[in-house]
Amino acid sequence: MVSKIQDILIIIIIILGVLFSGCIENNLENNKEPPVETVEDIAVNLMYNFANGTIDEIYNDVFTDEIKQQASLDQFILIWNQITGQYGDFVEINNIKTTNELGYIVVYVTCYYSVLGNLDTRIVFNSDNKISGLQFVPTDVSSLYKLPSYSYEDNFNEHNITIGGDTSWPLPATLTIPNGGGPYPVVILVHGSGPNDRDETIGPNKPFKDMAWGLATNDIAVLRYEKRTKYYADTIVDDLTNFTVYEETIDDAISAVNFLKEFENIDSNHIYILGHSLGGMLAPRIGTETSDIAGLIMLAAPARPLEDLILDQTIYLSELDGNISESDQKQIDLIQENVTKIKNLNISDDEIIIGAGFSYWADLSNYNQISTAQSLSYPMLLLQGKRDYQVLYEKDFLVWQSELANKSNVTFISYDSLNHLFISGYGTPTNSEYFSFGNVDEQVIIDISNWIKSKII
Asked: Is the pLDDT confidence value at 21 over 70?
């Protein structure tokens, strides 16, 4: 949950990857054979139709019946309004890149917008050159990333591994291990909402890489992996109606635990789960699924239901300029309507609401993160930035603190200047600051390191 793109769109579009299908009709000119329309042509035409407000003219032709069942024309228009409401008016197309991902042809169209600059549209094509997937994702600006000053590469080594190799969902991963004989305590990093990579890359920021290198510098191993909803996005979308947070998050975290139990130089008695945002919310549930961990670390963990956060974030961002536009109000009304449906589980078997189906929301409705945490005896560390506008100090962190106040196994730490990524900032928190480079604050690394080392006898 990271911005109107990385959390409203994360949940609405990106969390499980809302996919769309169709094709553009060819035009005949002077009775000549029409030119063969490439996937790049189709992708560019699609973006110009969005920009020109003519998506309605191609809606029935471009998208498959399966996708039209999941996303109406009005929802497409609202999604585009979200993009332009945050990024500004469409200006031009800056770049087109075509790749092959897990057997699918994927075209990335980099568009420039008047306020926040570049944003990629990821368009997936099937074997008939019809669009079978569409996502708005931050443009790769990883070249702006810099290693944190508190990390020392000579202190550790990184190993490329695979977790879940004995399952249907093997995932590429990186294990960062301090140099020396060990055995070392280890932290498993569990992502927030959205199809995150192993670094939890957001704009030029890589908070999971910061944590891995910072903790490894302090003699703590770290395992981070590609999230299933990123690595298998185009497969998962075919079965959204049966998808839950178990498939999204929990199953792979357990695979990581099982992998580390037998890995050389790892102290199997000191395996810790570190969950960020949604990962923090689900950390107590992960703790009920295995007896092989030594504790939970929860960064910006929501105490409220996920759908409530989505609505509050939508309203917050809409009110930032002091004037809620008509398109903003339509979006708020739509989210409110969907939140009501989620609360009542008024969702048909084939319906997708805020990026997920009945199974996902029914599963979460039966999960209470606070009562689950109350039942656990694991040591727990909860961290919160006070500048976080997505998971709130007042509505979330203080609730955790109050509800777990009588548990001696829980430690709470908050930081005045840190945002949702635990990067320092100032002034009114906004979504645009995620597109400015920063590193996870060193004090967070120090506090996590000290807490883990205090648990080792």
From this structure: no
Catalytic residue, chosen from 3, 21, 132, 277, is: 277
pTM score, whole prediction:
0.79
Q: What are phi and psi of 239, to 5 degrees?
A: -135, 40
Q: What is the pLDDT of residues 423-436, one digit of tens each?
A: 999 989 988 788 78
Catalytic residue among 191, 270, 276, 420: 420
Strand partners, 156: 178
Task: Label residue 354 by pLDDT band (50, 70, 90).
Answer: confident
CATH class of 144-304+348-454: alpha beta
- In sequence order, the β-bridge partners of residue 117 are 113
Identity (one letter) of the amino acid at 7?
A: D
- Taking only the tens place, the pLDDT of each residue in 213-242 is 999 999 999 999 999 999 998 788 777 778
Q: Note the pLDDT of residue 321.
A: 76
* Residue 2 to residue 436: CA distance in whole angstroms: 13
210 noted as active-site residue: no
Helices (H), 88-239: 207-217, 228-231, 233-236
Is 388 a known active-site residue? yes
Third-level CATH fold of 4-139: Nuclear Transport Factor 2; Chain: A, (3.10.450)
The pLDDT of residue 363 is 96
Residue extents of the structural domains in the chain: 4-139, 144-304+348-454
Which residues does 413 contact at the CB level (< 8 Å), separation at least 6? 381, 382, 383, 384, 447
Respond yes or no: is residue 159 known to be catalytic.
no
